[in-house]
Design brief:
By secondary structure, the chain is mainly alpha-helical. Helices cover 80% and strands 0% of the residues.
């Protein structure tokens, strides 16, 4: 059991850190208008927060998908997007505020990130499921796979 918990933590963390370091950095630079040094500070702040929030997001997403029971690809896309939006946007606002964004930079950054969460919810859900499979784990409703698998 401890091994599965460690693998779950590692899979969810690696998936989140890789995916959102890239996505958030691009949003900060090109949507929020932050300078590259501000982006670097933001990502430095964001990395430990991602480590702390990756597994809780995994729990949240699994629970949210379980209670909403999406039965079609379209409804899964919508529910994955809502799950990601509801969990990540408040954290993101804190990160860009702490890294120096103010006023309209926060508003445009948060709105841009919210749109990205709606667009990237399902791609991130698939990315997360991919990493979980690589770590020999399953998401609710999936069949178990081996580590080699």
């Amino acid at each position: 059991m401890a091994s599965e918990k460690l693998r779950s933590f590692a899979a969810d963390t690696v998936a989140l850190v890789i995916f959102f370091t890239i996505v958030s950095g691009l949003n900060e630079r090109f949507i929020a208008g932050m300078s590259w040094p501000e982006v670097a500070v933001s990502r430095a702040i964001g990395a430990p927060l991602m480590v702390l929030t990756a597994r809780p997001y995994g729990f949240w997403r699994d629970w949210f998908l379980k209670i909403t029971s999406p039965r079609s690809p379209g409804s899964t896309l919508i529910m994955d997007s809502i799950a990601l939006l509801a969990f990540q946007v408040p954290i993101y606002v804190f990160i860009i505020f702490a890294s120096g964004a103010r006023g309209m930079g926060i508003v445009t950054g948060a709105l841009g990130f919210a749109v990205l969460m709606l667009i990237l919810g399902r791609p991130y859900g698939l990315w997360l499921e991919f990493f979980r499979r690589r770590f020999g784990l399953t998401s609710p409703g999936q069949k178990p796979m081996s580590l080699g698998g």
